[in-house]
Design a protein that fits this description.
Elements: E1 6-13, H1 18-30, E2 37-44, H2 49-56, E3 63-69, H3 100-103, E4 110-113, E5 117-119, H4 123-127, E6 136-140, H5 148-158, E7 166-173, H6 175-180, H7 183-194, H8 201-209, E8 214-216, E9 237-239, H9 255-262, H10 268-276, H11 280-300, H12 307-313
Parallel strand pairs: 1-2, 1-4, 2-3, 6-8
Antiparallel strand pairs: 4-7, 5-9, 6-7
Helix pairs in contact: 5-11
C-alpha cells in the first residue's frame, strides 16, 4: 500500500548522536504544518532503549517517530580510514541512507537528513519540491567550496565540478527511481570491488554515482556555518557540518537556533554538560583531523584508483 500522503523523514544515528537528533526532531515538529502528516524514521544499529524512549516521547499526533534497526549485512564496510567520517570517526550510520530505497518500497519519495541540524522551515515544503526524473535533490556543499585542495579532490578524484559537489546531509530522494536503478546493489558492488579511498565516504559515492541526475536545491535548505560569509537571513534548515558544532565551540554561526531547541529537546542538560567538558585536547584533535582531511584530499587525487579515473577507463560508476 502506498503512503504518499505521509511525509517520510529518515535519520540515521547511534547513541552518541541521540541528543542532537532530539534537537533536530523538536525543531522539525515545531515547524511542521498542522495540515500534513509526517513520520520520522530513525535507522540505527545500536541505540539504547532509553534513547528510543526519550526520542519517541517527542512525537505528536501528526509527527510520529519510528525506530528501524539496520540489518547485519553491512559487514563488508569496515573501520578503515576511507570509511571514516571527518577522518576521525567510524560509524556505519553514514551509509544507511544508501539503503533507504530498497528498505522502504512503500515510499516513492522521501527526505533524508543528518541529525546535526535545526529546522527553521516546514519539511513539507521541501518534500513538495519537484525534482523531475533526477535521483536526488540536494545543495552544493559550500563548506568545502573555498578550500582549493578539497575542490581539486572533488574534481580530480570524485569527478564532479567543485560548484556541483553536493552535501549528502540533506537529501530529497526519488526513491522510486533509485530503486529502479538498484542503488544499493550498485553501491555495494563498487565498494567491495574497488574500496575507493575517500574523505567523505557516503557523500563521495553519491556524488559519483548520481552525477548529472541531481536537482540543486536552494541553499537555504542546507545553510552551514561559514565564518567567511554572513549568515543567511531566512535559513530553512541549518546544518552544523564538519567541526562547526555549537555543542563543542562558542561563537558558531546560527548557534542561537540550536540552543533554542536544545532547551526543548529533553537533552538540554546533557548537551550543555558535554560542551562544558569539551577539552582543549579534543579541540586540538579536531584541528588535526581537519588538517588530515585536507592533506588526504591532496593525496587521494594521485591514487591509481579513483572514481574519475575508473569512469574515464570505462567502468560503470554512474547509475
Amino acid at each position: 500500500m502506498r503512503q504518499q500522503h505521509e511525509i517520510p523523514v529518515f535519520f540515521s544515528i547511534d547513541d552518541a548522536y541521540a541528543p542532537y537528533l532530539g534537537v533536530a526532531l523538536r525543531s522539525a515538529i515545531d515547524h511542521s504544518s498542522p495540515d500534513r502528516v509526517y513520520k520520522a524514521i530513525v535507522l540505527y544499529q545500536t541505540l539504547s532503549e532509553e534513547n528510543r524512549r526519550r526520542l519517541g516521547a517527542l512525537a505528536t499526533e501528526r509527527f510520529s517517530v519510528e525506530f528501524v534497526p539496520m540489518r547485519d549485512s553491512l559487514s563488508c564496510i569496515t573501520d578503515r580510514m576511507s570509511n571514516r567520517l571527518r577522518c576521525d570517526y567510524f560509524t556505519l550510520t553514514i551509509y544507511f541512507r544508501l539503503f533507504i530505497p530498497a528498505m522502504f518500497p512503500q515510499y516513492d519519495k522521501g527526505i533524508y537528513i543528518d541529525s546535526d541540524v535545526v529546522l527553521c522551515g516546514d519539511l513539507g515544503e521541501l518534500y513538495d519540491t519537484e525534482i523531475g526524473d533526477n535521483f536526488l535533490g540536494a545543495c552544493a556543499d559550500r563548506s568545502v567550496a573555498e578550500v582549493p585542495p578539497l575542490v581539486r579532490y572533488m574534481e580530480e578524484a570524485v569527478g564532479v565540478e567543485g560548484n556541483k559537489y553536493i552535501n549528502s546531509g540533506v537529501l530529497l530522494m526519488n526513491l522510486k527511481a533509485l530503486r529502479k536503478a538498484n542503488l544499493e546493489e550498485h553501491f555495494l558492488r563498487l565498494l567491495t570491488t574497488y574500496q575507493f579511498d575517500s574523505i567523505a565516504p557516503d557523500q563521495d559515492y553519491l556524488n559519483a554515482i548520481c552525477k548529472d541526475r541531481i536537482y540543486y536545491l536552494d541553499e537555504a535548505w542546507d545553510a552551514m556555518p561559514n565564518e567567511s560569509k554572513p549568515p543567511l537571513e531566512n535559513p530553512k534548515l541549518i546544518h552544523y557540518n564538519l567541526f562547526s558544532k555549537p555543542w563543542c565551540y562558542d561563537g558558531i554561526q546560527y548557534e542561537e537556533y540550536f540552543w533554542k531547541y536544545a532547551a526543548q529537546s529533553g537533552y538540554g542538560e546533557e548537551i550543555r554538560s558535554f560542551k562544558e567538558h569539551y577539552s582543549e585536547e579534543q579541540k586540538q584533535a579536531d584541528r588535526a583531523c581537519l588538517e588530515l582531511l585536507i592533506r588526504r584530499g591532496e593525496e587521494i587525487t594521485q591514487n591509481e584508483v579513483t572514481f574519475k579515473k575508473l569512469f574515464e577507463s570505462g567502468v560503470k560508476i554512474r547509475l
